Amino acid sequence: MRSWKRWHRDARRHPLSALVSLITHLAALCTVLILGFLVAYILINGIPNLKPALFSLTYTSENQSMLPAILNTCTMTLLSLLLAVPVGVGASIYLTEYAPRGSRLVALVRLTTETLSGIPSIVYGLFGMLLFGNALHLGYSMLSGALTLAIMILPLIMRTTEEALCSVPDMYREGSFGLGAGRLRTTLCVVLPAAVPGILSGVILGVGRIVGETAALMYTSGTVEKVAGLMDSGITLSVHMYRQASEGLYTEQAYATAVVLLALVLMINLLASRLAGKITKGRQA
Amino acid sequence: MSNTFTVKDMNLWYGDFHALKDVSLDIPKGQITALIGPSGCGKSTFLRSLNRMNDLVQGCRITGDIRLCGENIYGSMDVNLLRKRVGMVFQKPNPFPMSVYDNIAYGPRTHGIRKRAQLDEIVERSLRDAAIWDEVKDRLNRSALGLSGGQQQRLCIARALAAQPEVILMDEPTSALDPISTGRIEDLALDLKNDYTIVMVTHNMQQAARISDRTVFFLLGEVIESGETEQIFSLPKDSRTEAYVTGRFG
User: Which of A18, A116, A146, A266 is exposed most, by the fewest CB atoms within 10 A?
Assistant: First the structure.
């Protein structure tokens, strides 16, 4: 109660700052409440509907199994990251470490990435279908989908990686150059390891977008309820859920799928932060 | 006595700003040369030209002649090899975010030493030479960022020594440290001058007087006076030098 008394006293002395403090507290509380409500709502509606049949190896319209979709989601995530991360990280390394600071090319690439990140995902889907599906004859396939998603998350990966690289203090670079190391060694051995946590946070955001994407995938990887190989069409969890919900017959199963989707995203995030901890071990004080 | 560095008619510009004007200077081997002067006088800029760290600054242009043991360092010399020969210790301790061992081994590894036994030996010798072995020998595999500021700076000196340089440039190496750590670094510099040529920028005139053999006074990008430290501090030839070393400005 003492803190309450103090708050009261402070509020009388500085009414405006007390008001601002109240508003910011409420805003913070609001976000937590919304998230809490969302998660609780999904869990309450979804958990009772989680039945063993939903995890059968093959999908039928009877069992509405989501296991193929779960596996496809994992494949899609891995494949998209495999395509997007090397390109994104490589481009960011060029922009921050190699390109002359403030050059026209850098400004152009930045403008391009900013623009790319603002395009709605359905446009990516259409583009992916026309380019990968039709022009390159990949058809409805996991590869078409992964290529499309890779382009979609590229700006995200690039921006976070760039920020991470920029936040590595220049004194590390100077220290490395001062010992006679070249730019490549400096970047690979000193700058990049120091930026790993930031890069991983970008990858996590990317994973979130991949797992949650529906519009771009319906056009490119299709809606076949089967465990898919690289060149096969296969449905992912979000698309699976969208289909269940939009058909109106399987709302309960859709809730169950939502629970699994939530758990999957949470697991991937935990895994990534655990990985970041492993990599940066022995680096922090 | 032979000179490690001979600098002739050196000029340096940052864009349009003429930062160093007609600097000519000899830096003798096996001595500590202190560069003093008020902030912005160009002493750090000069130091950074000696191992071409200014190459990293955009818009930096250098004319004139800087020779390391007779060899023009802005000529055909490989810049990475130059920086191996001319090590550097920075104002703020900057150990890499890795283990103590990896910090010290970074230089040797850069220059192609891979054998574990050889690296072990270099690491121990460098840490001993930098008078920090006893404090870190039990924590070689822990992060270097856990050390105190003074320890970190000695670690950085050890890291520079591990690359087996001929010269060590120190850019205000004690300005971020407490008096006790400063004293240790100064003792260390005195020990090291038997084997290395040391060029040190300092803001602290007592420090220059205590440990350096020669002192160079910079003002507004020009070398006003250089000579034996004793002479600079007791019988300066230029009135501006006298005003500075007696603390009348700066």
Answer: A266
The span from the CA of B35 to the CA of B46, in Å, is 9
Range A129-146 average pLDDT: 94
**Residues pairing with B88 in the sheet:** B169
Contact between A237 and A227 under an 8 Å Cβ cutoff? The reply is: no
Interacting residues of A178 by C-beta distance below 8 A, sequence separation 6+: B51, B53, B83, B87, B88, B90, B160
Helix, strand or coil for residue B66? Answer: strand
CA–CA distance, A173 with B96 (Å, rounded to integer): 9
Interface test with B, best of A179, A186, A196 (most B CBs within 10 A): A179
Q: What is the pLDDT of residue A242?
A: 92
Are A282 and B51 within 8 A, CB to CB?
Answer: no
Q: How far apart are the C-alpha atoms of B169 and B182, rounded to whole Å?
A: 16
Q: How far is A183 from chain B (nearest CA, A)?
A: 10
Q: What is the pLDDT of residues A184-233, one digit of tens each?
A: 999 999 999 999 888 988 888 899 899 999 999 999 998 888 888 889 99
Q: What phi, psi does B108 have (nearest 5°)?
A: -55, -40
Residue A279 predicted with pLDDT over 90: no
Nearest to B56 by CA among B83, B77, B75, B37: B83
Give which of A202, A217, A263, A246 is closest to A70, Cα–Cα: A263
List the one residue out of B96, B80, B199 whose CA is nearest residue B155.
B96
A63 Cβ contact list (under 8 Å, min separation 6): A53, A54, A56
Flag if A169 and B94 touch (Cβ within 8 Å): yes
Q: Which residues of B touch A172 (CB under 8 A)?
A: 94, 96-97
Burial of A234 (0-12, 13-18, 19+ CB in 10 A): buried
Strands lying side by side in the sheet with B60-68: B17-28, B3-14, B60-68, B71-72
B1: closest CA of chain A, how far (Å):
27
Beta-strand relationship, B3-14 and B60-68: antiparallel
Please state the φ and ψ torsions of residue A110, each to the nearest 5 degrees.
-60, -45
ipTM: 0.91
Amino acid present at B29: K
User: How does pLDDT run across A13-26, given as a tens digit for each residue?
Assistant: 888 888 998 999 99
Token pair, residue B91, equals 């104002």
**Closest partner residue to B98 among A174, A180, A282, by Cβ?**
A282
Q: Does B51 touch chain A (CB under 8 A)?
A: yes
At residue A285, the pLDDT reads 45
The residues, ordered by sequence, that sit 6+ positions from B242 with a Cβ below 8 Å of its Cβ are B236
Q: Give residue-wise pLDDT tens across range A86-117.
A: 999 999 999 999 988 778 888 898 899 889 88
